[in-house]
Amino acid sequence: MKKWLQLTAVALLCAFVFPYPASAVKIVVDAGHGGYDPGAIGVGGLQEKTVNLDISLKLRDELQRRGYMVAMTREDDRFIALPDRVSFTNGQNADLFVSVHANSYPNASMTGSMVLYYDDDYPQADYPASEAMRALSAVNRAFATQMLQSFLAGTGLGNKGIVPSAVHVVRMGTIPSVLVETAFLSNPAEAALLAIPEKRTSMALAIADGIEAFRPPIFPDLGQHWAQQAVMRLYALGYVQGANNLFYPNQPLTRAELVTMLGRVFAGTPGAVDTAIVPCATAQTPAAGSGVTAAVYGTGGKEPICNVPVFRDLAATHWAYDAMRQAAASGWLQGYPDGTIRPNAPVTREESAVLLDRLLQLAIPASGSAATGKLPFTDVAPTAWSASAIARLAAAGIVQGASNDKFAPQRQVTRAEMSVMLDRYVNAAKDAG
Ligand SMILES: [Zn+2]
Fold it and tell me: Do 231 and 426 form a contact (C-beta atoms < 8 A)?
């Protein structure tokens, strides 16, 4: 539910396209202690804050590689108060919270791993939990159980169980939260393990396994892809989708995909997709007194359109039939002279720029006048049909060259490239209010 509330306006506009809130899976990783708070001091002087940070940074890298978004409460050696860790987390719109610690106990023979979580079945009167966390008790328990199982499987360490706990960071937040006590710094053997970089790596991977088993990532094929963050932002807004939980970022974008993406991004733009389409029979011969007017279809005064160009090669059963018909009705998509639209054909960078520019001008009419900027690309002739569109988008910072001074207009645009362009537009539009 997280982004739903913030994005009510967007959600209302595209609810008919995308009736459920979607977002990338985001993890907050919290390296325990830091700065003047060293945490436990291990046998041999190893400080807990150092071990926690190293494992957390490795966990961050691994989660990103697997296609998660990650937010870190700290990425260096600094002190952060516990309430600040929670308020940071609450501001992240994240899905899960994992705090990384190492344990300590007066009896040096104590060994093993445990996972702490908040459980309302074991309340502590002096340490009341947030209402949200109380309600998450069962989820926390399931998350802790999975985390412990994965962590033990990945590290071979001893089982100290899951532990209902009132520690601040798992008690006061608003999302499922666990705290992993990796091993005991007070035990000589485990302190030695925690000092070995490879062992820390295996602990980080095991924590990632626990997260993945509990909440698989969306689009794991975007892990470490240069377009990952842009795609994730668009996905969170409901503008892009994948298939089979994969995004296929390097695949050429088809015309049907392009039109669908543009239709979603510009759903709130007057003239973009607000032309009502009605069956011709209804539009031409409304039954007497039936009151079939533009208002019925919510066109905001526009006449319903029935004679949308019907493309010879666009079957009514095509998944993008409605989006493409709508785009054609609204006037920003034309077919080929032979009456086709070739929905499954890849589009070029030039074509995608022209379509994006058309909608940009609808959304921000003033942008049309800024077309005079000199083309920064040597491979786009000033007389080319796409030249002014590319110039405008380049001036707005929405498109960049494929390399140095080349735009590569004839090259097929990939799903990743188009996502980055749209992401730049969405951010620019947001900045412009
Ligand atoms: Zn600690």
Answer: no
- Please tell me the distance between residue 214's alpha carbon and the centre of ligand 1 in angstroms: 24
Strand order in the sheet with 113-117: 69-72, 26-31, 96-103, 177-184, 113-117, 159-164
Between CA 406 and CA 380 the distance in angstroms is 8
Q: What is the mean pLDDT of the segment spanning 149-178?
A: 97
The DSSP secondary-structure symbol of 288 reads: T
Cα(34) to ligand 1 centroid in Å equals 10
Query: What is d(CA 112, CA 116) in angstroms, rounded to the nearest whole number?
Result: 13
Higher pLDDT, 236 or 240: 240
pLDDT of 282 higher than 70: no
330 or 344: which leads in pLDDT: 344
Which region holds residue 70: left if phi is over 0, alpha if psi is between -120 and 50, else beta?
Answer: beta
Domains by residue range for the chain, with CATH? 25-214 (3.40.630.40), 226-431 (no CATH)
Ligand 1 centre distance from Cα of residue 397 (Å): 45
CA–centroid distance, 128 to ligand 1, in Å, is: 21
Compute, in angstroms, the gap from residue 342 CA to the centroid of ligand 1: 60
Is this structure's pTM higher than 0.85?
no
Distance (Å, whole) CA 271 – CA 257: 20
Lowest mean pLDDT among 128-142, 268-282, 419-433: 268-282
Residue type, 95: D
Distance, in Å, from the CA atom of 41 to the CA atom of 67, rounded to the nearest integer, reads: 34
Q: Could you tell me the distance, in angstroms and rounded to a whole number, from the CA of residue 30 to the centre of ligand 1?
A: 11
